[in-house]
Design brief:
The complex is a heterodimer of chains A (113) and B (114). Chain A has 113 residues and is an all-beta fold. Chain A has strands at residues 4-7, 10-13, 19-25, 31-38, 42-51, 54-57, 64-66, 76-78, 87-94, 103-104, 108-112. With 114 residues, chain B is mainly beta. Classes of the chains: A mainly beta (113), B mainly beta (114).
C-alpha cells in the first residue's frame, strides 16, 4: 500500500544545531507540504513543493528550508534550531486531482533545548 | 493572510447526542472547503471535500454543508459515539487550481462521553 512516512518521529536537539526531518511518500504525488502544529494555531504551512526542483515558502517559512531532488522525498531542514521551533511537524502529499485531498504522515515531534 | 475560523474550540457531549460545529472562511477566491478528522496520536484524515455552493456531503453519521456566498460550512454528527472523539479540522483552498495548498482552521475538539 502507498504511504507517507516521516523520520525521526521524535527528536531532541540543542539550540543552534542543524536538524533535518525526512518525509518520504510512495503515492507518486507531485505536491508535498510541511506543516507545523502548535497549540492555538492549528496546522501552519511552512514550505511546499509542486514537483522536482520546485519549492515555495508558506506562511511560517523563516528558519526552515526544503529541497526536492526527486518525487518521493521532501526533507525539511532547520538551519540553526531555535526554541521557538519546538513543535510537531507534519508532512503531507497530494495530487492535482479534483478532490485536492492531502495525505498526512504521522508527525515528527521536535524539541529544541 | 487568509483567516479560517472554527467554533466552538471544544465540545463535550454525551453518547447519542447530535452535534454540529462551524467553519468560516473567506467568501472570495473560493475553490474548495475540506474537512479532516484527526484522532489523538494519529494523522489527519480527509472526511469531505466540497466545491459547490449548497453542497451537502454525508459519510455514515457525519454530514457537512457548504455556503460559499457567506463563507461558512457546518459539520454535523448524528448520534455521537465515543469513537467520534477527535479534532475536526476544516481547511480552505483558494482558487488558482487544484494545488492542494490548504489553509487550516484551529479545529474543534470533540469529546464524546459514554
Amino acid at each position: 500500500d502507498a504511504e507517507i512516512t516521516q523520520s525521526p518521529r521524535h527528536k531532541i536537539t540543542e539550540t543552534g544545531r542543524q536538524v533535518t526531518l525526512a518525509c518520504h511518500q510512495t503515492w507518486n504525488h507531485n505536491n508535498m507540504f510541511w506543516y507545523r502544529q502548535d497549540l492555538g494555531h492549528g496546522l501552519r504551512l511552512i514550505h511546499y513543493s509542486y514537483g522536482v526542483q520546485d519549492t515555495n515558502k508558506g506562511e511560517v517559512s523563516d528558519g526552515y528550508s526544503v529541497s526536492r531532488s526527486n518525487t518521493e522525498d521532501l526533507p525539511l531542514t532547520l538551519e540553526s534550531a531555535a526554541s521557538s521551533q519546538t513543535s510537531v511537524y507534519f508532512c503531507a502529499s497530494g495530487d492535482r486531482g479534483d478532490t485536492g485531498e492531502l495525505f498526512f504522515g504521522e508527525g515528527s515531534r521536535l524539541t529544541v533545548l | 493572510i487568509l483567516n479560517v475560523e472554527q467554533s466552538p474550540q471544544s465540545l463535550h457531549v454525551q453518547e447519542g447526542d447530535s452535534t454540529n460545529f462551524t467553519c468560516s472562511f473567506p467568501s472570495s477566491n473560493f475553490y474548495a472547503l475540506h474537512w479532516y478528522r484527526w484522532e489523538t496520536a494519529k494523522s489527519p484524515e480527509a472526511l469531505f471535500v466540497m466545491t459547490l455552493n449548497g453542497d451537502e456531503k454525508k459519510k455514515g453519521r457525519i454530514s457537512a454543508t457548504l455556503n460559499t456566498k457567506e463563507g461558512y460550512s457546518y459539520l454535523y454528527i448524528k448520534g455521537s459515539q465515543p469513537e467520534d472523539s477527535a479534532t475536526y479540522l476544516c481547511a480552505f483552498q483558494a482558487s488558482g487550481g487544484a494545488t492542494n495548498k490548504l489553509i487550516f482552521g484551529t479545529g474543534t475538539l470533540l469529546a464524546v462521553q459514554p
